[in-house]
Amino acid sequence: MREDRNDIDRILGEAAACRRRGDYRAAARFADEAYRRSGPEHGRRRCLAALEAARGSYGLARFDECRRRVAEARDLAGELDASVRRRIDVESSILLANVHRRRSEYRKALDLLERLDGLPGVDAPGLVAERLLVEGACLFYLNREEEAERRLESALGLATHHAHAALQSRILAMISLLALNRGLTGSAAEYARRALRICREGGDAYGEAAAALNLALTLTRRGEFAEAKRHATTARRAFAAVGWRAGHCRATLALGIVRSRAGDARGAVGLFRKAERLAAADGYRREECIALCAMGGIRLEQGMLSKADRMFRRCLDMAMAFAPGGDMVAEANRRIGQLFLARGAAAPAVVHLRKAANLARELRDRRAEGVAGRLLGLCYLNLGDVAKAMSHFDAACGLLRRAGCLFDLAETRVAVAEAILARLDDQDTPAADLDGAWGGVLEAMHLLEGMDAEILKKRAGELLGILSARRRTAAAVEPDRRTGMVEIRFSDEYLIADRLVAASDAMLGVLRQIRFAASFERPVLVTGETGTGKELVARTIHESGDRRDRPFVAVNCAAIPDHLFESEFFGHRKGSFTGAFTDRTGIFEEAAGGTLFLDEVGELSTLQQVKLLRILQEGRVRRLGENVERPVDVRIISATNRELERKIEASTFREDFYYRINAEHIHLPPLRTRPEDVMPLVSYFLCGRKEGRETVRVESGALRRLQRYSWPGNVRELFTVLDRVRHLGPGGVVTMEMLPARLGEGAAGGRGEAVPSAGAVRTTDSLRKALSMCNGNKTAAARWLGISRGTLYKELRRAGLSNLISGPRTA
């Protein structure tokens, strides 16, 4: 008898071990064997074997069988003592709640778990944590995120404290989904990676597969398709190995979505078909709907509208049957609206898209609402209501940005620009719309950096070229053959942002970074030599962001001595120190709700850095002489002309403070590396609207000297020279004699760096750009580059562009 009991205990131990590492087939087999070996005389062991068999059935998605085995375990527990009965009741209730959760019956699951509150004496940490996990998951899917977060955090604390590794990994995976839904894709990826690491260390195959699937979904939203594909493939294989058919189906869907977004339509359709068959066989109606919508979307892109229509309608009918107010009804309506739009029927498309957007808003699904909003914008553009269309586009981009759907955001920016170009012709296109489309594509190009989205990158690149050509309205720089004078005028095309003037590719890249930084609240560090315009960049970020209507407070950190530092930044109470005759509000409170610009941040002492770091971390400030801390909501933008990495190595700049202010880094290139910006800056300063002068005549030698000088003081030095010129030549003429002597031929290279000379070899892109900016005029392009016409011809031949020498002017 004792030997039988030992055998049964050993087999039950094997079953539990297999279940913990995710091998549900083996777990179910061992549990069944333990059940067969135990008879009525082994009451407690027979009961535990039935419960273990129920767990194995649940792991294999055999939910009806799971319910039957739970009923057996509860019947057997009726003959046992009260404490064992309570334990079996709790464990089986949690198991049944999980079944309800897997079948999307979230309210039933919560109702079942609420009944456990009246059972005394059951407080095992593992059971409590598992119950909190199930409750948190159900509340999450019911859009009660704050309640879900509280339960999941409590569950994670219990699981971590009591070293329940398998449970800890599942909680982390669920928290990852919560973070993903809030748009915190970085945090979501980190939680999923932690879960993945725990499962690998513990040999938990099921948990590893679930974490890999969550990570794949997160990386897909971030546009990191290569890594997402790898993790989705891992999850699919692992789910198949452990026999979790629901997971295998979902991983197949995830892999199909990754392939679809990466441009592999054929491979994606094959995977969606497999997922549809798996879902239909096991009754996973939501997964079947996802597969139908995804396949229909690809058919829509391929122009197979009738096939797409059938798939979308079938999905809508199924979704209305099992969840009339669910996300799949929203998705099906969005797809049907998209289909109407493709057929040119914008009015009926609006009806379906509004339903989709309203449902998504109720479900708090920012991505779904954002994509529906983008399509609504396209509808209104087709209906001729441009203002309404632009409003929907802006709202859609805001939603996608907050949701962390960077690929969808880039795709939206590109789609909007394409629609604007397709809708409006050259003569009727408002400059503001073209500028908005151009800026949107710039943002898309920045978002797509590092993504495995070559097709969308190519579309964006081609579109940027078209938009740049359309915006380029500057007149050619024509020299007067008789006087040798060049007449220049300012064009709004040079104004790439408010007060930010440039034509170089380097500064266009800076503009992309500015637009990207303006869309988030992270701290920004702007670096560059003196006079490059760091404060102007900071103001542009502020004025382009959500805080534009709040204060912008600029502080020169080098001008504040140590003994006044705390008073200036944090404020003080009257009488807190000698000379404090009145209360004073500090800089942080002055900038509340807005932006604080820390200029010359590299000049802060390490003690000052420590004091600022505490405020930046805690978001609270305490005035001198007070015991009360005040909350402050301030966006930090810093600037320096110092190399902070070297200061860190020399221990004169704190590494933790550096990483706190450097969440986003923008570097401004010196003016000597972008001589093509000299002409726009000269025209802006001398012919800008504030000057009341449309054109200025510049002696060709003077213009060449301005372009060849190294400008150690950068734009600030250039504007100082131009201010001198403006007062010396009020008649609108600039001659060589008006320029300072230091700008002479021998004065180049103010910092010991090479300055592009007349004979320097230029890239193919710079030659093409010069010709394009001057409408194909070779003489004007040569003057733009600061070289002779003959040198331009030599460089065109050297670059393999001989066809442009005698070619027509380009628009």
Helicity, as a percent range:
55-70%
Rg over alpha carbons: 33 Å
Strand order within the widest beta sheet:
6-9-12-5-13
Number of helices: 36
Strand runs, count: 15
What is the SS-derived class?
Answer: alpha/beta
The shape is globular
Structural notes for this entry:
Helix 4 (63-77) packs antiparallel against helix 5 (82-102). This protein has a 5-stranded parallel beta sheet. A 4-stranded mixed beta sheet has the order 1-2-14-15. Helices cover 64% and strands 7% of the residues. 48% of the residues are buried. Mean pLDDT is 82; it is low at 425-429, 472-476 and 745-761. It has 36 helices and 15 strands. A hairpin with an 8-residue loop joins strand 10 (620-621) and strand 11 (630-631). It has 811 residues and is of the alpha/beta class.
Task: Provide a brief overview of the structure.
The chain has 811 residues and is α/β, with parallel strands linked by helices. The chain is built from 36 helices and 15 strands.
Keywords:
single chain; 811 residues; globular; four-stranded mixed beta sheet; alpha/beta
Write the layout of secondary structure elements.
Layout lengths: L1 H19 L3 H14 L5 H17 L3 H15 L4 H21 L3 H9 L10 H17 L3 H17 L3 H17 L3 H18 L2 H18 L2 H18 L2 H17 L3 H18 L2 H17 L3 H18 L4 H16 L3 H17 L3 H17 L3 H17 L3 H18 L7 H18 L5 H18 L6 E2 L5 E5 L5 E3 L2 E2 L3 H14 L5 E5 L5 H11 L7 E5 L5 H9 E2 L11 E2 L1 H4 L4 E5 L6 H13 L1 E2 L8 E2 L3 E6 L3 H6 L5 H7 L2 E5 L9 H10 L7 E5 H9 L5 H15 L4 E2 L29 H10 L4 H8 L3 H10 L13
Parallel strand pairs: 5-12, 5-13, 6-9, 9-12, 14-15
Antiparallel strand pairs: 1-2, 2-14, 3-4, 7-8, 10-11
Helix pairs in contact: 1-2, 1-3, 2-3, 3-4, 3-5, 4-5, 5-6, 5-7, 6-7, 7-8, 7-9, 8-9, 9-10, 9-11, 10-11, 11-12, 11-13, 12-13, 13-14, 13-15, 14-15, 15-16, 15-17, 16-17, 17-18, 17-19, 18-19, 19-20, 19-21, 20-21, 21-22, 21-23, 22-23, 22-24, 24-25, 31-33, 34-35
